[in-house]
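(Fold this chain)
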Amino acid sequence: MKLFLGFLLVTFIFFGSTLSEVRKKFEQASKSKEETISFYNALHSYKGKDATMLAYQGASEMLYSRYFGAKETRKKLLISGSSKIEAAIQSEPSNAEIRLIRFIIQENLPKVIAYNRNLTEDKKSILNLYSQQTKEVKMLIKKYSQHSKGFTASEKEKFN
C-alpha cells in the first residue's frame, strides 16, 4: 500500500511539474518559430489521456502548422489539433484552462481557417469559472486577457 501511495505521489509531482512546463512553453510558443518547435516537440509524443494535456497537444499542432509542411500537411495538423482540443472540452466542459486554450487559438487563427465559433461560449465559461481556478491558471487567464481583444475592460478587471 505504501509503495502504491508513493508511486501515486511521484506520478502526481512529475505530472504537475510537466503541466507547469507545458504552460510556460505554450506562453512562449507564439513568440518565435524556435519556441513553437520546442512546444510541439514537448507534446508530439504525448499518449496520455489527461484532457488538459491533450488540449495543449492540440494547440501545439495548430501552432506548428504555421511553419511546417506542405499545404496538405498544415491542413492535417490543423484538423488534428482542433479535434484534440474539442475532445478535451467534451471530456471536461467545465475546465477553464482548456476553454482558455481554445479561446486563445480561436482568437489568433486567421479568419479564413473558420475555427472561431466558440469565442463567446469560452469567454463566458472562463469568466464564470475564474474564481475556482488554481493560482497558476488564474495567472494564465489574467496575463492573456490583458492583451486580448476578446475581453472588455470591465471583464479584464474581474481578473485582478
User: Anything to note?
Assistant: The two ends are 43 Å apart (CA to CA).
